[in-house]
Amino acid sequence: MSWLSRLKAARGGAPALGKQAEQTLRDWHALPDAARDRPHFESRYVVVNTEATGLDRDRDRLIAVGAIGVDGGLLHAADAYYAKLDPAAADALAGLLGLTGKNPLVVFNASFNRNMLERAFQEHLGLVPEFLWIDLYFLLPSLFPEKLDRPGRLGDWMAAFGIETFQRHHALGDAWAIAQLFLAVQARAPSFGVNSPEGLAEHQHAYRQKLKV
Amino acid sequence: MTTEAANLLVGASTDFLRNFSPFNRMEAEALAFLAERAVLAFHPRGSDILTPEMGVPRHFYIVQRGKVQASQTGSTTVTEYASMTLGPGECFPIGAISARRPSTNAYVAVEDSFCFQLGADDFLHLMQMSPVFHLFCTQYIASLLNQSRQQLQTTFAQRAAEQQTMTTSLGKLVKKDPVFVTADTPTRSALERMNELRLGCMVVVDDERRPVGVVTQSDLLPRVILAAFDLARPIGELMTANPHQLPTTASAYDAALEMATHGVRHLLVVDSDGILKGVVSERDLFTLQRISLRQIRAGIENAADIQALQRASTDIRQLALNLIAQGIGAEQLTQFISALNDALTRRIIVLARERHDLLGIDFAWFAFGSEGRHEQTLSTDQDNGIVFRVVGSGQVDEARRRLLAFARTVNDDLAACGFPLCKGNIMASNPDLCLTLDEWKSRFGDWIREPDPQALLNASIFFDFRVLYGNERFGDQLRTWLNKAAKGNSTFQRMMAANALKVLPPLGRIRDFVLEEDGSIDLKKSGARLFVDVARILALRTGVDSSSTVQRLRQASTKIGFTPEEIAAIIDGFNFIQLLRLRSQHLETEHDTGDDNRVDPESLNELDRRILKEAFRQARKLQLRLKLDYQL
Question: Looking at the 3D structure of chain A, how many domains does it have?
Fold first, then answer.
């Protein structure tokens, strides 16, 4: 129960979590850690994406979160989540954890999205959940150099794959596009000997190292 | 909030699907079902999405982005395209997933592609819930039927063209290897050979097999017999030198012209080196011209004797082959055959009447069974009977005696013209089947009141009666009476229905087809009859007058609540089976083997197999309807 007391302490006089959100959080903590060495087709990834007041990760605030599960290489409309932080930010974030579970998270541009999310988790839930973060910002150019041989913007990658979405710059709208890009990543990765969530994380790390050289 | 997200994504998929047919016409509820259930997957360029080896497809795919190529696998081309590219909004497979059989095509992503996929069960559910989608799939399968028919045309067109047109080259027309002798052959042995092989013409060649002369039958009288020619002398002294010859590339028309110009009955056909290839006779050319619908009809109507009608009967078979080649569907084809056979039978009856005294008898000649339904194929037994009444003061039994003698002549003549005598003695010359109207009603009434197995079997043959010759009013009266009697007796209908459901479509659970012991499917017993039996019951119940299965189904459909699309699909299924029967009978006829309603599904191409399976599914649908109606 330590995490719960820590949470209560952190939140101080803030209103308590909704009953359901509290249960969701409790369930999340009870989950075993997701395996990181399973092949893609046996893994469930979750694409997460944020919508913020701007692009300055220190000054701007998180407005909404969107998430889509990628289970066994398939996108299913029912396996998705979208919530605005206003008015009940804690509930919104707890709900997000309800969908992600402890599965590896896929984002486009982790430095912004991960930062935004972790700050919001800390602020509203009083904890920073541990995830394996997979960043398409680096993975895409490393796996598809023939399309774009350096990190690019989401719009560039969508154009390169002819991918469209129902609403750009919307947390779920962009997540839908990122999820489609991730399907392509999953299909391509094995030809680089990358077969698991762990492998993706390592591959992305190696690519970043190479960029620095 | 999971709901909110799901709604957004489902909405997005719905908007996407709405850009394409048939989804843009689909009912809102069905489209929502599709968008909710469909999941999106990625297929990199060059990857297989669905292949025949993957077995029964587990998903139905709709291309969302990219290009998918469908290509034929295996050696036979079963559709008009060898390969076809599918883009966004197009879907596959339809036939395979409907019929739960492996796809005949291989579907490969030729670009990086995204496809929505719907589980097979959801696909079938969607077909059920959406009339629009159902129609889309049915029409797709119907288009397969068309393709199959076209393919059938090409198969036959070549053979028909060879046999039919005057533009056929002589090289193709000459079928038999030529018979020839050299000029030094003794005349006796050459003539013996002619006699033995029943040749009208013997060709004399040199050592290189180039023709140097001919001897024809008409030469024998003046040159051999009257001239007292010594048969020991060489044939070279007897022959007509410098015979008429044409190259293999000349047409049948050229040959006819040559014969007419020179007044000869035989022409020699030689290749470009002048070497003998064969002989064309006037008779060969005559056969080419003779076979047309109009000519056969005229031939039948003017026939003075059975020999002339026998020739007409052969021509009818030949015509049927030509009609298949011209792409006429099974329904029209069987009608043609039926119409010509009717004309033939009528002519036989007219000729027989001239030899029998039927004065004071008003009668009609009934056709039963498949002949009664206008569904005769090429190997149908006779099934006929007579209904009559005595005009004036004559005795019924005396009239019956005279009719029976007359009927015996007709039955025998029909047999001589290729309609085998009925093994079950369902023929007008059987005293039990030469009855007055009241006697017929009483027989039919017995069967309806006491539907034991024999009565039900009888009903399935005799209730398909129609008047082929004579007073039509007998037929109308009997039909009206029968419809009333059968309609009023639900027990009888129920028994008929139970009987009709005894034979099930030969669809397998694991394999495609359930086969007979010899590995074949009986297209009559386990195919056509399934439709015929249900149609008969529907007709009796709804008071349809027609005896034809297709007409019965069409006319009854509105009264029993089948949509026009549904009934059209069922009729297509029936017609396809009939077409397969006709086709196999044709081939059988040419090879002179026995059983003609059997088909080995392995001998069919992929497309025909798929359609045959669909046809059986339609039969199952029809049977299911009967099952529900009678709670069987």
Answer: 1
